Amino acid sequence: MNRRGLSLLEMLLAIGITSIIGAAIASMMAAATNSLSSKDDGRKSAIRLATTQVRLGAYIAPSRCILDKSNTHLTLWLEDSRENNTVHASEIRWLSFDENQKTITVEFVDFPDDWSQSMIDTADVACTPATNFEALLEGLRADDIVESVPLIDSMESCNFWINENESIDATHVCVRFSFSSELGITNDSIIDETIRIHQPPTEQQ
Length: 205
Description:
four-stranded antiparallel β-sheet; single chain; alpha+beta
């Protein structure tokens, strides 16, 4: 049989078809990779959303009341451990969003193990309606008796809202936030939490 080589036109067509097929395969592989990455990123975001709700809810829901609030922080009276219906420093939890660190942290008083009860009683100051809770926290930090624990990381934004003008009267907290992810910044998510039993201190009632 007389075999002939490919003509120049046939060779160009073959190269063109091969290139088109190669480009199509590459495009399909990229789409599949992007789809898998998107799904994986979506799963991670869903897990972080659920984790955020559980961790914030663990502090907000059982709290007796909200003592102070700004767009990026929430000050909670978590418990009345002395059972005297008065807020003491050790009963407070400060939740705050750090835009630089991209985290929500909780801060609370942690007295040294070697302190006597009288030292603890002196440092565990009682609060009044006139208390500046941010200034109180700064003073406790200066005394080196504050523990800080990161609750949620990789947060791009976070804002707190409450359902009353006065923090002490609020029973509902709305948290709007977004995460940093491998594919960029996520859409805003919203978490709603309610204080189960609203019990402000005596001087506020």
